[in-house]
Amino acid sequence: MATTSLEILFETLLAVPGMHDPVKIDLKIPRKTILLLTEVIARGMNQKTDLENGIIRISKESAAELQTIIDDCLEKSGLTCLNAKLREINLQS
Questions:
Q1: What local confidence, expressed as pLDDT, does residue 35 receive?
Q2: pTM of full prediction above 0.85
Q3: Distance CA 53, CA 45 (A)
Q4: Is 13 domain-assigned?
Q5: Residue 69's domain spans which residues?
Q6: Backbone angles phi, psi at 36, to 5 degrees
Q7: pLDDT tens column, 17-68
Q8: Phi, psi angle pair for 79, to nearest 5°
């Protein structure tokens, strides 16, 4: 349930017709940017939303879509194994 006018506005924007239509995006970016982008998305999905400062509440469906995007980007760039190793190193430290 939306508790602030900013949350109501954000939920309204997500409900606009056409927001669920697929969009094809052709990106040509360096592998280092893909690693950074996937990490930023993953960290953003894991953060708790502060009711005073945050407006985004990620549904389970949206989280699954974002995880698919992360997985696809890593697979297409050949960075899946490297990313897994980096996560292992991060967990050990």
A1: 96
A2: no
A3: 16
A4: no
A5: 23-92
A6: -65, -45
A7: 998 899 999 989 999 999 999 999 998 888 765 545 556 677 788 889 999 9
A8: -110, 10
- Per-residue tokens: 72: 């696809």
Instruction: Please say whether the beta carbons of 37 and 73 come within 8 A.
Output: yes
| pLDDT band at residue 1 under the 50/70/90 scheme | very low
User: 9 Cβ partners below 8 Å, 6+ apart?
Assistant: none
Q: How far is CA 37 from CA 31, 75, 80, in A?
A: 10, 14, 13
Is 85 part of any domain?
A: yes
Could you write out the DSSP letters of every residue in 4-32? SHHHHHHHHHHHSTTTTS---------HH
Instruction: Report the distance separating Cα 69 and Cα 66, nearest Å.
Output: 5
pLDDT(7) > 80: no
Distance of alpha carbon 93 from alpha carbon 88, whole angstroms: 9
